[in-house]
Amino acid sequence: MDRPKKVALAYSGGLDTSVIIPWLRENYGCEVVAVCGNIGQGDEELAGLEEKARRTGASEVYIVDLREEFVTGYLWPLVRSGAVYEHKYLLGTSIARPLLAKTQVEIALKTGCDGLAHGCTGKGNDQVRFEMAYKALAPHLRVIAPWREWEIRSREDALAYAARHNVPVAATATKIYSRDRNLWHISHEGGPLEDPANPAPEDVWMITRSPREAPDQPAEVAIGFEQGRPVSVNGERLGPVAIVETLNRIGGEHGVGRVDLVENRFVGMKSRGCYETPGGTLITTAYRELEALTLDRNLMHYKQRLALDYAELVYNGFWFTPLREALDAFFEKAAESVTGEVTLRLFKGNVEPVSRRSPNSLYAVDIASFTMGAGYDQKDAEGFINLIGLPVRVRASLKAK
Predict the structure, then answer these.
(1) Which of 16, 25, 81, 324 is catalytic?
(2) Is there a catalytic annotation at residue 357?
(3) The domain that contains 204 carries what CATH number?
């Protein structure tokens, strides 16, 4: 296979992607285009990124602000779906990968690249997520995954390679955790977390207070939705990015959104990670409460089943597929009535609903109330029970004989 002459690299500025630039030049003799998507990882990670990439050997550098698209095109559909992976994980890293890969492919095609590269290891899920997107969007481009080729086997090896090639890196051999951050969450892996018998040390957490140190007084936050899309916080209409940032701050202050999870990776192994998703936890909780008010039983229960499929689809990297598009169409239709406001009470890591209001509420007080009313004739229940219980009664009679 011909070697690519120009490769677009998914670039974060971390240790792995920093050493990949000189490694590609050394082993493939190609130009390297560094592509970084700003999905809310913070100014600290993005500061000086272009200069660093060029000093390391990149011929072109693109840093693209994707925050608005990330929220409206990826996070809001995720919220509408109700997808949660293995009961706990709100899919913060998983949902960001297809957008980063799509942006990388777009820039690769625009700049005349004939190859794509990423810094994902051969053990993780991210290699699948990136490469499934590549196959869907640019199957003709050569894919290079250095972790599946090079002799580097550890963090220490990567640091040694960086030192030999004068690659500036902020990482050190004593760094404990591997982290990934965006607007929706921050994940933590490695170090003492690799043994699931170890409790998560307090120094793992970065954007949420310890519930023990959270305020001693509860706080209430109201989240407004229109057709399944969050539009306001405490009655103030905000843009999509501002909504997530505001709720991250509020939730984090009250210790909301911590998850410690042993999960099943798509590649077959189990791994342990800790996740912080304060704003996402509030939005997801509020949305679930509003759905309970506005969706009829059959739709709500069927949607819950599809949410499991959607969670696996996102986690496993099958974003750019007809199935995901079809499921999104279903969830968007289901969300048409999900308009209203939910108030949540936050207290030392806990979240509980206080009130739910919607112009589309299916909750009829005159029917649900214990007070007898004209809207529901309780005598009708006898015939209903006789009909649905007929198979049970027939079977019981047969057994009695």
Answers:
(1) 16
(2) no
(3) 3.90.1260.10
Query: Same domain, yes or no, for 372 and 353?
Result: no
Number of alpha carbons in the 13 Å side-chain half-sphere of residue 228: 20
Distances in Å between the Cα of 27 and the Cα atoms of 24, 134, 146, 357 are: 5, 22, 10, 61
Looking at the fold, whether 343 and 207 belong to one and the same domain comes out as yes
Q: What is the pLDDT of residue 372?
A: 59
Residue 97 bears catalytic tag: yes
| 314 domain-assigned | no
Name residues whose C-beta falls within 8 Å of residue 35's C-beta, 6 or more positions apart in sequence.
8, 9, 10, 11, 62, 64, 103, 104, 107, 108
Distance, CA of 353 to CA of 209 (rounded, Å): 21
Q: Which of 12, 81, 178, 358 is catalytic?
A: 178
The pLDDT, as a whole number, for residue 59 is: 97
Q: Write down the pLDDT at residue 114.
A: 97
3-state secondary structure of 355: strand
Q: What is the pLDDT of residues 302-351, one digit of tens each?
A: 999 999 999 999 999 999 999 999 999 999 999 999 999 999 999 999 99
For the segment 84-112, the average pLDDT, to the nearest whole number, is: 98
Q: Which domain holds residue 392?
A: 365-400
Catalytically annotated residue among 97, 209, 229, 356: 97
Among 126, 129, 209, 271, the active-site one is: 126
pLDDT per residue as tens digits for the range 246-298: 999 999 999 999 999 999 999 899 999 999 999 999 999 999 999 999 999 99
CA 209 distance to own-chain centroid: 21
Task: Examine the domain organization and report whether 163 and 39 are in the same domain.
Answer: yes
| Whole-number Å distance between alpha carbons of 75 and 93 | 11
